Amino acid sequence: MQEPIHVAIGSPVDEIDTPALLVDIDRLAANLRALQSPVRAAAWVHCTPAIAHLQLRERHVEGIAVRGVAEAEVFAAAGCRDVRILRPLVTASTRRRADALAGLARVVLKDDGLALWEEDALAGAVTVSATVASTPEPDRAIHDCGQKAIGRDTASPKVKGREGREGREGREGREGREELIANAGSAEHGIVAVRSGAQPFSIGDWLELVPGDVATAFALHDFAYGVRDGRLEAVWPVSARGAWQ
Fold it and tell me: What is this structure's pTM?
């Protein structure tokens, strides 16, 4: 298991060693406030009890959903009191373990009509930080966030907060062309291709990458770092990571 990155609470976010899994607390709260109807938060996406409790504070979140009994055990032990298990309990052992949770939480084993609030709940709130390690060419930067930190199973990451001279509303110019093209590269390193019009990178530059798949990103980290206004506010264990049974 990884050790948490040792940096004082309140430190600027770019002082956290990279790569680090970051959660913008205010952005997550805004996503929560946008809910209009009762849902279950898909806690299996982030595997992080602290995030589940933030979700459960929202009046439209009536419980959480997990994939299996092992995840249910983690979240119930962390104080989540209404848990739906999505997978059928096909063995006697998993049924016994689910029954044993009755003293900790209400365990739901069938569809209760509540919609599942999945990755869109975390859209825009989750990034993985990176530091540029080399710039072998003016239009190419190599950073330290590769497949082992962000994944690339479903889509390549995107660079947050960088735009070309034509891209005032995002990373795309007037013709819709992306100014920065990122990919996860190798296991340890990622690549950003800089197109004409975008500011080039320098060695040591700090950047944030939006993962193509949030669940994959959480599955690759033992800790998530809650940030607010550009500063570290909390360190959260991704406690249900690897709880498959």
Answer: 0.90
